[in-house]
Design a protein that fits this description.
29% of the residues lie in helices and 33% in strands. By secondary structure, the chain is an alpha+beta fold. It has one domain.
Length: 170
C-alpha cells in the first residue's frame, strides 16, 4: 500500500479523534502529528500558500466551498471532516456554513444558556487568531529540543487548526 495513502488515513484518524461529541466542546481545535517534510510535500505540495526560509515553516489555508473541495480531493473522501454519533448527531469541521443548509438543524438550548452565562461573567480577551472561523490552517514546522549536554533533537510536525460545530439532524 502507498505510504502517502497510509499517512492520509492517519491524518483523518487524528482529525476525527479531535471532533468532540458534545455541544460544549465545539469550537477551536488543534491536531499535531509527527510528519517528515517529504510526507507534507507529498500531500500538500500543490496547496502551499506560504513558506519562510528563516523558520522553515510551510502554511496552507483552506476556506469555503473551494477549500472543502480541495480537501475532499486530497483525502479522497467527502466524510474526512465529519464524525457521526448516535441519535442523529454529527460533529464537523467548519469551512462553510452550507454543510447542513439542506437539512433542518437545531442547537442545544443548554449549550446556548451556558455560552450566554460564560459571556456575561467573563469578558474574553481580544486576541489575534492565526486563522478565522470557517477556515482550516495546515502548518508544517520543525520542532527542536536541546538538552543540558547540548544534544539537539529535531522532528517535523503537521499542525492542523480548525473550528468544529455540531448538528442534530431532525
Amino acid at each position: 500500500m502507498d505510504l502517502t495513502k497510509l499517512f492520509k488515513n492517519d491524518l483523518i484518524y487524528f482529525i476525527h479523534h479531535q471532533l468532540p461529541s458534545g455541544f460544549k466542546n465545539a469550537g477551536k481545535k488543534l491536531v499535531s502529528i509527527p510528519c517528515s517534510e517529504s510526507q507534507f510535500h507529498a500531500i500538500f505540495a500543490n496547496h502551499i500558500h506560504f513558506y519562510s526560509k528563516k523558520s522553515g515553516v510551510y502554511k496552507c489555508w483552506f476556506r469555503g466551498k473551494e477549500g472543502e473541495e480541495k480537501l475532499n480531493q486530497i483525502f479522497g473522501s467527502t466524510d474526512w471532516g465529519i464524525k457521526y454519533y448516535n441519535q442523529n448527531q454529527r460533529t464537523f469541521i467548519v469551512l462553510t456554513d452550507n454543510n447542513v443548509s439542506h437539512q433542518k438543524t437545531e442547537t442545544n438550548p443548554l449549550a446556548l444558556a451556558t455560552a450566554k452565562k460564560a459571556n456575561s461573567i467573563i469578558k474574553p480577551k481580544k486576541s489575534l487568531n492565526k486563522y478565522k472561523y470557517g477556515e482550516m490552517l495546515v502548518e508544517w514546522k520543525c520542532r527542536r529540543d536541546k538538552d543540558a549536554m547540548g544534544n539537539i533533537c529535531s522532528a517535523g510536525f503537521i499542525y492542523i487548526h480548525f473550528y468544529t460545530k455540531q448538528a442534530y439532524i431532525v
